[in-house]
Design a protein that fits this description.
6-stranded mixed β-sheet, alpha+beta, 4-stranded antiparallel β-sheet, about 450 residues, single chain
Length: about 450
């Protein structure tokens, strides 16, 4: 009997994932543990392995589809078995290899609307006075169909599943990625695509002449669709700026104790395991200890309430080829310097190679982001809501300081604190920065805590 393989739920907060690449085709033999596809969650890329052995009878989704967790993505069994009972409602991928060219029926279904740069459909919402059935709502959300103005054929005008199917029938057949590119307004689609059954893919799109009036085709270096991790980052950064009142405070701290202690660690016995502790590790350690005295910054603001936390769950920004990722060191304020540094290295490596667990990317109460290695002195870090504060770390540079009537050039490190001014006033933020600078200046005392 044919068996399904579902989209795995890789963490408590994971709701869906995008199928980036299929590793197996319909008709291929599959053994348990074989990689079926590569998926991307909001922060990480990973592989989905088969939980059954046999022949791949059907793939229920296409590359680029955003699939809810625990939904069947493939069926595996003996050749010839019927798998329609395993197909998720509304799934569009075929259970047989797709023809290389569009059939006449598919070609005739193309419409002039496919040549327009239509807006990207928004998730379904309740429309009309009769409401919408749960099955219709789920199908519309999965297919990104806007139900605004759609007439319902159910009781009292209620939108039911058949109404959604009817609306989908007349919609241009394009891949999700191609639809996003059309929505940008910079591309136009042909009457018929090169995909299965004439489906229009991103490769079929052409730059719109109106979008690039002064450029020739040869001037374009690359067209990069905003999707996956990059899309999530763009959405969250925009939402952060639109939904919070952000204020950034800048200060400098004496960096000599940091640099001196870092040198001692580099020269320490290898058996101690401290040689890899970085300046950033030292700074994050002091941050976690300082925050314990300023709980109003170690907090979340949600649903018109502020939740203060006893422990610091420290997020820290990691630059990866897929974009900015912020893993979280759990209970960082209760870890030793060595333990905290080891956990930071583990999480950073997992972010870089795409194996970070979704649960490691959630639950932070405060975030540190460091641009010092790129020569930046101070900057304006953007809040990571619902957190109410984020610390930006700049580089270490010489700063003139008056000492006993003379001017000395002393190494300082830049600190930029962004707070949500809706719930954190400027004075508490300034006092935290002041305390952090003082604690960095007496680093060895902080390490004794």
């Amino acid at each position: 009997m044919a068996a399904p393989v579902v989209m795995p739920k890789l963490g408590n907060t994971m709701e869906s994932a995008i199928i980036m690449r299929w590793a197996k085709n319909v008709g291929d033999p599959v053994a348990e543990g074989d990689v079926l596809c590569e998926i991307e969650t909001d922060k990480a890329t990973m592989e989905v392995e088969s939980t059954a052995s046999g022949t791949l009878l059907a793939r229920f989704f296409n590359e680029g589809d955003d699939v809810p967790v625990l939904l069947n993505i493939v069926a595996i069994g003996a050749p010839g078995e019927d798998v329609e009972s395993l197909r998720p409602e509304g799934a569009g991928a075929s259970s047989a290899p797709a023809p290389a060219e569009a059939t006449p029926a598919a070609a005739s279904s193309s419409t002039a609307a496919q040549m327009q740069t239509t807006p990207l459909p928004v998730p379904a919402s309740v429309a009309g006075n009769g409401g919408i059935s749960p099955r219709a709502k789920n199908l519309a959300a999965q297919k990104q169909l806007d139900l605004s103005g759609l007439p319902g054929s159910g009781p009292h005008g209620r939108i039911i599943e058949r109404d959604v199917h009817a609306a989908l029938t007349g919609r241009p057949k394009v891949t999700p990625l191609a639809r996003e590119m059309l929505a940008s307004g910079g591309f136009v689609a042909p009457d018929q695509g090169t995909g299965a059954r004439g489906r229009i893919t991103s490769k079929d799109l052409q730059p719109a002449a109106a979008a690039l009036p002064s450029l020739q085709e040869g001037d374009i270096l690359e067209v990069i669709p905003v999707k996956g991790t990059r899309k999530i980052i763009s959405q969250r950064m925009l939402a952060s700026m639109q939904t919070t009142a952000q204020l950034t405070l800048n200060a400098f701290a004496d960096a000599r104790p940091l640099m001196a202690y870092r040198q001692r660690l580099k020269n320490s016995s290898e058996a101690l395991g401290l040689r890899d502790v970085t300046i950033n590790d030292l700074l994050m350690y002091v941050v976690t200890r300082t925050l314990l005295s300023y709980p109003e910054l170690n907090a979340l603001y949600t649903d018109e309430q502020i939740t203060l936390y006893r422990r610091v769950h420290l997020g820290f920004a990691v630059d990866t080829p897929r974009g900015l990722i912020v893993p979280v060191i759990r209970s960082a304020s209760e870890l030793t310097l060595k333990q905290q540094a080891q956990e930071a290295r583990r999480l950073a490596a997992a972010c870089q190679n795409g194996t970070v667990a979704p649960d490691d990317l959630n639950g932070g109460t405060f975030t540190v982001t460091n641009l010092g290695n790129l020569g930046i002195e101070t900057f304006t870090p953007i809040l990571n809501p619902p957190q109410v504060a984020i610390l930006g770390v700049g580089n270490i540079h010489l700063k003139p300081v008056a000492v006993d009537g003379d001017v000395q050039f002393i190494q300082h490190i830049g600190l930029s604190l962004t707070i949500n001014h809706q719930v954190v006033d400027g004075a508490p933020g300034a006092r935290f920065l002041q305390a952090l600078a003082a604690n960095l200046a007496q680093l060895e005392l902080m390490l004794a805590l």
